[in-house]
Amino acid sequence: MSKLEELIAELCPDGVELKSLSQVLTIKNGKDYKGFDKGNIPVYGTGGIMTYIDHAAFEKPSVLIPRKGSIDKLYYVDVPFWTVDTIFYTDINTDIIEPKFVFYYLQAQHLERLNTAGGVPSLTQAVLNSVKIPLPPLPVQGEIVRILDNFTELTAELTAELTAELTARKKQYEYYSKELLSFRDAQYYALADLCDIVDYRGKTPKKVENGVFLVTAKNIRKGYIDYEKSKEYIAPEDYEIVMRRGYPQQGDVLITTEAPCGNIAQIDNEDIALAQRVIKYRPKTDALNSTFLKYILLGNEFQDKLLATATGGTVKGIKGSKLHKLTIPVPPLEVQARIVAILDRFDTLCNDLTSGLPAEIEARRQQYEYYRDQLLTFPVRADVETEVGA
Q1: CA–CA separation, 360 vs 211, rounded Å?
Q2: Contact 68, 120 (CB under 8 A)
Q3: Which of 70, 103, 135 is a domain's end point?
Q4: Exposed, middle or buried by CB within 10 Å (0-12, 13-18, 19+), for 105?
Q5: Whether residue 247 sits in one domain with residue 120
Q6: Are strands 233-234 and 253-257 parallel, antiparallel or unpaired?
Q7: Which residues of the chain have pLDDT under 70?
Q8: Which helix (H) or strand (E) holds 64?
Q9: Where are the alpha helices (DSSP H) in the chain?
Q10: Which residue, of 75, 109, 135, is where some domain finishes?
């Protein structure tokens, strides 16, 4: 039996109390700091430390909870600090609860789910005060904090190692991509001569809660479709209207014409619809490998051409008529296949969320959250009928 199990068996074998947050701490508002001189006291905003001044708003350990913006990004602070008005600080009753226990527990609650605004995410004191928190005895809280501190440190070290490895691999990927996609002797052709082209202009039907997934410019990243970035759907009966110019096929290459301009992806799922500001290319000649087309459009040479042709200030855009005239090199098919094989391996290692380094980093995060949530889940005393946990 672990030390934690022994403490629980000894001190709270029948479960723990359930309290509202307002019963264990007081939430306080931040204020403007601009009237103070420079110093060594950190000033926290939603994004973290903003500056340093010579005056503290609070000197005891506290959990900082963003009021607006990134409301899921909590901070534990155990030195004197100041907070601005976009972030709450907490005065915690340490006679009954460990400040860092509060931090870990609130982290596990994903406070972004309590958003009260339709625009910029927001939290109110009233909503936060009603959050329920378990109250095991202080020795139990302390042991949980000790375990999670150690696990947090270990996970951070492992993640840092994986992130460093990922950064190194991405640099290798960029180097080999640049070298492999630089040609001296290959013949250049306009995209319009090489591909069948569909520009999905026109009014998009009304969005619905469920239906056919609509891939918009927001979903198209540098090399892949991000189905989590934006989730929009159209009714199945409207699919024919949207796709009447050309249905998607696996391997078709997509390019965005604005907001953002020049992002590239390859279709990996035919059960989708394509929105405005997305152009679809499909090689109409056997001399062009569609995956090679994806990589060549992602390459520096083509991207430089595209941006030089695009117009606009902060938000660049390019007309399809100009885009289709841009040229790309077409080496022999065996050269294309060799380049695709090499870059596919790098792409999987650097970008694949199911088998590459990003997947390993995500697995570490999920493992950490799983064990944290298990440690913070308690049976509640018999006078409370539900179980509280992460």
Answers
A1: 32
A2: yes
A3: 135
A4: buried
A5: no
A6: unpaired
A7: 1, 118, 353-355, 382-390
A8: strand 62-66
A9: 3-11, 99-108, 125-129, 138-180, 191-194, 236-242, 290-298, 300-309, 320-323, 333-351, 357-375
A10: 135
- Distance (Å, whole) CA 167 – CA 60: 38
CA distance readout (Å), 60 to 41, 81, 97, 149, 311: 13, 9, 14, 19, 54
In a domain, 337, yes or no: no
Condensed to tens digits (0 to 9), the pLDDT of residues 78-128 reads 999 999 999 999 999 999 999 999 999 999 998 888 887 767 788 999 999
- For residues 232 and 214, what is the distance between their CA atoms, to the nearest angstrom? 5
Residue 174: what pLDDT? 85
Please tell me the predicted confidence (pLDDT) of residue 385: 46
Please name the amino acid found at residue 193.
D
- Look at the chain and report how many structural domains it folds into: 2
Nearest to 107, CA basis, from 69, 76, 68: 76
Instruction: Please report the pLDDT score of residue 386 as a whole number.
Output: 46
